[in-house]
Every structure is written in structure tokens, then in C-alpha cells.
Specification:
With about 725 residues, this protein is α+β, with helices and mostly antiparallel strands. It has 20 helices and 20 strands. The strands form 5 sheets. Strands 6-10-13-7-1-18-17 form a 7-stranded antiparallel β-sheet, with no helix packed on it. It has a 5-stranded antiparallel β-sheet with strand order 9-2-16-19-20.
């Protein structure tokens, strides 16, 4: 549990908590159960791995199950998520969003660690080695996690380790014969008191003195989080936060801006599409002042200064008109990516930050874009034409049909834009998502309705399929002008927006607007009027079945594409099924809870079932009357453990029977059975068949009497209690 607490420093929220904690807990319970019923370690490992697959599926990929069982979609989703997770792990810097890939791998890791710890602690009885698996995860989180809480999590971990070592050694000593007979509890109690005092003293001393040690507050000589790129960093898609904000914080002020011109205030560009979501994969470098750009500047542009004051973005991104070329006045460390023209703060969020940006805003016209000539750079084509192989052929065919008669790249991009604006409409009443399945549903369903993420993402994917380098930009529309201050704008959550950008040789990255009801400033070449969501739009219940050949020009008359209930994360909803509920009748959280309840019942009564199976197997191995007598006595002695009577080492059957009868009286007729067993063991001729049958009937009656007296609860408790000494009296 302490390791799990320290592990939380890797993530920005607690969405990972239930799956990972459930995996760790169930793994411990499974390992304990298999150990209690004496399943061999090889078989126990196989059973644990099998159950791990089912549990992680239910926790992370339940939408891909069929009737509660893993399907081919489950495996495909896991492989895809794992590949994405490995790719992003090389760049992401904690704390990060708990994507499905991270949560699934974390659940698997905690499951394996819990099983290995149980194996080391209670099968091998290795004290120190049992803490190594948990220490490995704790060290991983300590090296890569956020800086907050590093001291108290470290102190808690070492205190937990000391406590485990103390209890483990004490438990081991209690099961041995090292204590003087009759003084076991006194010895154990003294060991626990002394050990607990030492552990508490060590913890308090560490917590109190470590902050004052030389170098305790200094920066480390090596930051392992920067080993991959010398301070560069890759961040998650801002759509994750923006979409949630659009639902819950529509009227919350994100930032204010003073600018002689209004524009789309761009946060970043999402350059990579993996079939599940659009995201950013470019590294950032620390920067101040001039912003180095790597793209060609159009010949016709003007320089515009903007002064931003960030209120509640709660993100690392810094808005700016495209394309930023100079930043001043920032009181925090900034980082810059020239490929996507993106500014971010070095740590934490941009809330409360003020800064000035100078941007080069182009004055491109349709004629200039048609006349643009040149060759698209190789690095642009190699990166911005990539598409997953799973893109359906009919998506490419549709894009080819729309653009086939267009003479220039600009005309092809405009043809795609007009196709969406003329044939699609907003809707807040359709499922969200920008994965491949969502693209197909968006393009080929009868509704032809979607959100701006779907318009921008689908446009960019179709553009790439016909050879137009494209990406998805995320940011905000101009916002509401402040009365009496024509150059001041208040940008709220409802102004969040996404749009595609296409690379045109000789002109660079050019904005297009396929979303109906939206129009960018300073973009006359798109043949659209400037429009944005200036009032709170309401959902249109009929929009999911309406196809708008000519969408209304008034944005207030059309529902906003950004009003839907947003998933918590972009990547978390991409798990094979990609946003569709393909679970069977037992799917969902109710099915998961039902399955876990069934597993709990099985785990609860499995020890009794296992004891019955062992008893049946031992009976089948009896070949003689003496064997049956020994088996009868063993069953009786095991049954008396339910009542708290255990056989002592070196105790004869008669002594054991006398001690049991002293406790329960003559109602427990154990003496006759003990007498027959003694004769069978030591008489020259043993016992005849009739005596053996009498002893067997006595044993069955005694077992039934003990079961009736003990009840189910005490029988279960005895089954789970580890036996440190032999149960069979001599």
C-alpha cells in the first residue's frame, strides 16, 4: 500500500487508482489462497497469470469483452496501447495523464510484484528478498515521479519495510520451537515491542534529520527524467483537458488578450495519428526571446503584438496567434517547439502567467495559394503523411473522389473543406472520439453530425490519404470583445476549438475550417465569414438524424460541436473497441463487480473444497486396515482444529484424546478411537477388519460432531490458518 501511494506521484489525477489497487489486492489474495491450499508454485504461477489476464481485461478493456470474456479486440487493443505506451514513455515527463496503456501496464506490474513478494515471503521464507519487488516499483516512481511528497513517501516506505521485516521474523519464530515451552507469547510480544520501538525511532530520526543533511536541498547531479533528450519533453494532447472544460466550465474565463487584431489563439498542433487519437510527439527546448522557426515564412505577412494574461487554463500550453516569433515578459521558464509553433511553461501550469507574443500573421489570398510553387520538404512529407494501416479503404476512396479534379493543393484542401461544410452539421447528441471507428461513423452514418474534433481530425486524416501533409491545431476562437475596449478579448471555455492545417509548398502551414458555423479571422481564402460560439448553444435533439446540405451561417442557430459529455482522457477511451460498447450482457462496471463477487465467493470457500479433495485422494490411497485407521485418525485430528484443539509434537493418541476430552467432556468419544489406533500401531497382530470398520465409523461420527459444533465460519478460519506444526499426533 505504501508503494502504491508513492506510485501515485507519476500521474496527474487518481483515475488510475481503482484498476491498479484492485490488481495488487486481488494478486495478494490469489497468491495467499493458492499457498494456503498448497498448490505447487508452478501451477500457482500459471493460475495467477491466467487470472491476471481476466482481471486486467475487466479493469482496462471491458468494452472489448464478449459476455465478460476477453476477445480478439482485447488483444488488439492491448497490443496497440502497449506500443503507444512504450513510445510515449521515452518522452513523457511525470506527472502524466493516466492513459489506458499506462494504467494497464501498471496493473500488470503490481500484480506480478504482489505474487513475487508473496512467493518470496511465505514459500521461500526470505525476509529481505520479499521486499525487493515492491522496492523496484518504489524506486521507479521515486526516480521518475513528481517532486512533491518525495520525503514522506520515502520515510513511509522504509517504515513499512521495517515493519514487514519485524512481523515476518516474528511470525517465523512463532512457528518454530525456539521459544521455551509455555513462554512463546511472552517472547513474541517482547520481540514485537522492541522491534516496533526501533522501527519508530528510525523513522522519526530519518524524517527529522534528513532535511538537514549536507546537500539535502540541492539539485541532483543527474536528472534521470532528462536522460532521453537533454531537457526536451513531449506532452499529451490538450484535447484531453479542453473537452472536459467545454462541458463543465463553458463560462469560466480561460485567459484575456489585448491585441490590435483578433485571431484563432492557437495552443499547439497535434502531428501524430495512431488510429486512436491525435497527439503531439515533438520535443521542446528551453527558450527566451526570439523563437527560432524552421518553416518558410510567406512573403505577405504583418507583425502583431498580443498581451496575454492566463487565468485558469490549468495547462502547460501558452496561447498565441500563429505564427509566434518572439516572446517577452514571461516570469517563468518557457520551452518551444518550432515544428508545431508551440510554447509551453517549463513546469506546473501557465495559470497566473502574463507575457507578450509577437506573431507573423499572414495575408494570404486564394490567388496566392493557387500560385504557390515549390517542393514540400522531405521531413514534412515523411512525418505529416503518416497514417495507420488500419485506415479503411473507403475513407481514402472518398477523399480521392472529392479531390481528384482539383488542379492545386490549395484547391484540393478547399474541396475537402467545402464537402464537410455543405454536407455535415453540428451535434451534441452523438458519441465523441476521433479514432478510426469514429471517423467511419462520422463519414458514413446517416446522421453526418459531429464535434469540431471529428471535423478537424477526419479532415486531416483524409488530407493525408490523398498526399496533403496535414495536422490538427487546437486552441481557441477570438473570444468576446470587452465593451468599450475593442482590442481586448475575454476567452472562455466555450471558445475552445480544433481545426486542421495543411502544408502548401511555398506558403507553409495554412489553416482551413471544415467545421460548419465556424470561421477564422484573417482567412478570406477559406471563403467563410468569421464566426464563433459567442452564446451558450443548446443541444438540438434532432441533430443526430439531420443532414444539413446548407448549414446556417448564424452560429447561435446551430448547436456547438463542443458541448458533449467528454471522456476523461483521449487515450483512455481507445481500447480496441474504440469508444463503442461492445461488451456483452455482463459487460461494464456491474459485470465487473459481479465477476469480482463471484471470485470472492470462490476464494472464500475454495480451501474447504480443496480439503475435501485432499481427503478424497488420501482415502483412495488407503490399501490396508492400518492405512484406513491412520487416515481416520488424521481426519479427526484435523477436524478438532476447528474447535481450537491441535496435536502437539511428541503427543501419543491417548494423550491427545485425554486432552480433548478434558476440554469437551465425554460427549467427544475420542478415547475408543485412540485405543484402537494404539493397538493397530503396537500390538503384534494389529487389528482385524471389524475393528478397523468400527474405528472408521467412529471417525466419521467425530468429524460430523466437530463440524456441527464449529460451524462454517470457524471451519473457514481453520482452513486459512497456516499450520506451523504437524497436525498429526504421534
Amino acid at each position: 500500500m505504501v508503494t502504491f501511494y508513492g506510485y501515485s506521484r507519476l500521474f496527474v489525477d487518481r483515475k488510475f487508482l481503482l484498476p491498479v489497487l484492485a490488481a495488487a489486492t486481488l494478486s495478494h489474495l490469489t497468491a495467499a489462497l493458492l499457498r494456503r491450499v498448497r498448490v505447487p508454485i508452478g501451477l500457482a504461477a500459471a493460475a495467477s497469470l491466467l487470472l491476471m489476464g481476466f482481471v486486467v481485461t475487466w479493469l482496462c478493456y471491458r468494452s472489448t469483452t464478449q459476455y465478460g470474456l476477453p476477445s480478439s479486440l482485447t488483444w488488439d487493443g492491448f497490443v496497440a496501447e502497449l506500443a503507444e505506451g512504450l513510445d510515449r514513455f521515452r518522452h513523457d515527463r511525470a506527472p502524466v495523464e493516466p492513459l489506458t496503456s499506462y494504467v494497464a501496464v501498471s496493473a500488470l506490474a503490481f500484480w506480478v510484484v504482489a505474487f513475487l513478494a508473496d512467493w518470496s515471503a511465505f514459500r521461500l521464507w526470505s525476509c529481505f528478498e520479499a521486499t525487493i519487488p515492491a522496492a523496484t516499483i518504489f524506486l521507479f516512481a521515486a526516480l521518475l515521479g513528481a517532486d512533491q511528497g518525495h520525503l514522506h513517501t520515502t520515510v513511509l516506505f522504509f517504515f513499512a519495510a521495517l515493519g514487514f521485516w519485524l512481523m515476518h521474523r516474528t511470525s517465523r519464530a512463532e512457528m518454530s520451537t525456539s521459544w521455551v515451552r509455555g513462554h512463546e507469547r511472552a517472547g513474541v510480544g517482547r520481540q514485537l515491542r522492541i522491534g516496533a520501538g526501533l522501527a519508530f525511532t528510525a523513522m522519526v530520526s530519518t524524517a527529522a534529520l534528513s532535511p538537514f543533511l549536507p546537500g539535502a536541498g540541492s539539485v541532483g547531479m543527474l536528472d534521470v527524467r532528462d536522460l532521453g533528450g537533454g531537457g526536451t519533453r513531449t506532452t499529451r494532447s490538450p484535447l484531453v483537458d479542453i473537452r472536459q472544460r467545454l462541458v463543465d466550465q463553458r463560462e469560466v474565463v480561460m485567459f484575456t488578450v489585448d491585441s490590435p487584431e483578433h485571431a484563432y489563439w492557437r495552443l499547439t498542433a497535434l502531428d501524430r495519428f495512431d488510429g486512436r487519437s491525435w497527439r503531439s510527439s515533438k520535443p521542446f527546448q528551453r527558450v527566451s526571446g526570439d523563437l527560432l522557426t524552421v518553416e518558410p515564412r510567406p512573403g505577405n505577412f504583418r507583425s502583431v503584438d498580443q498581451e496575454f494574461e492566463i487565468a485558469s487554463l490549468a495547462q502547460i500550453w501558452l496561447p498565441a496567434a500563429y505564427a509566434a516569433q518572439l516572446v517577452t515578459g514571461a516570469s517563468r521558464e518557457l520551452s518551444w517547439n518550432a515544428d508545431t509553433s508551440t510554447l509551453i511553461v517549463g513546469r506546473d501550469t501557465s495559470d497566473g502567467l502574463s507575457y507578450t507574443v509577437n506573431s507573423a500573421i499572414s495575408n494570404l489570398s486564394a490567388a496566392q495559394l493557387r500560385a504557390s510553387r515549390g517542393t514540400v520538404p522531405t521531413d514534412i512529407t515523411q512525418h505529416y503523411l503518416q497514417l495507420p494501416r488500419t485506415i479503411p479503404d473507403r475513407v481514402h476512396s472518398l477523399a480521392s473522389e472529392i479531390t481528384k479534379a482539383q488542379p492545386t493543393a490549395y484547391d484540393a484542401a478547399m474541396a475537402l473543406q467545402e464537402y464537410f461544410r455543405r454536407n455535415f452539421t453540428y451535434s451534441t447528441d452523438v458519441a465523441g472520439g476521433e479514432d478510426i471507428d469514429a471517423i467511419e461513423d462520422f463519414l458514413f452514418s446517416a446522421a453526418r453530425a459531429g464535434y469540431c474534433e471529428q471535423f478537424a481530425g477526419t479532415y486531416a486524416a483524409m488530407a493525408r490519404s490523398v498526399g496533403l501533409p496535414a495536422r490538427v491545431a487546437v486552441g481557441f476562437t477570438p473570444g468576446d470583445a470587452v465593451p468599450g475596449q475593442p482590442h481586448s478579448f475575454v476567452v472562455r471555455g466555450r471558445h475552445a476549438h480544433a481545426w486542421p492545417e495543411v502544408y502548401i509548398a511555398g506558403a507553409g502551414w495554412v489553416l482551413f475550417e471544415p467545421t460548419p458555423g465556424r470561421g477564422a479571422p484573417n482567412a478570406a481564402y477559406t471563403n467563410t465569414d468569421e464566426q464563433q460560439d459567442s452564446v451558450v448553444a443548446t443541444a438540438n435533439p434532432q441533430s443526430s438524424t439531420t443532414v444539413a446540405e446548407n448549414p446556417p451561417s448564424d452560429p447561435a442557430a446551430s448547436p456547438s460541436p463542443l458541448n458533449s459529455a467528454s471522456p476523461t482522457t483521449v487515450a483512455a477511451e481507445r481500447s480496441g473497441g474504440a469508444g463503442r460498447d461492445t461488451a456483452g450482457p455482463i459487460g461494464g462496471w456491474f459485470g465487473l463487480l459481479l465477476c469480482l463477487a463471484g471470485l470472492l465467493l470462490i476464494a472464500l470457500f475454495a480451501p474447504l473444497a480443496w480439503r475435501r479433495l485432499q481427503r478424497w485422494r488420501r482415502r483412495r490411497r488407503c490399501r490396508s486396515s492400518a492405512d484406513r485407521l491412520e487416515q481416520a485418525w488424521l481426519e479427526v485430528s484435523e477436524s478438532l482444529q476447528w474447535l481450537g484443539v491441535r496435536a502437539e509434537l511428541g503427543e501419543t493418541p491417548a494423550e491427545f484424546a485425554a486432552r480433548a476430552q478434558d476440554r469437551f467432556g465425554e460427549s467427544l468419544a475420542l478415547g475408543e478411537l485412540a485405543e484402537i489406533l494404539t493397538v493397530a500401531r503396537y500390538a503384534p497382530d494389529g487389528v482385524d477388519h471389524a475393528q478397523a470398520e468400527t474405528a472408521w465409523r467412529l471417525s466419521l461420527a467425530l468429524v460430523a460432531q466437530a463440524a456441527s459444533t464449529a460451524g462454517t465460519g470457524r471451519r473457514l478460519g481453520a482452513a486459512y490458518r497456516r499450520r506451523g506444526r504437524s497436525n498429526r499426533p504421534t
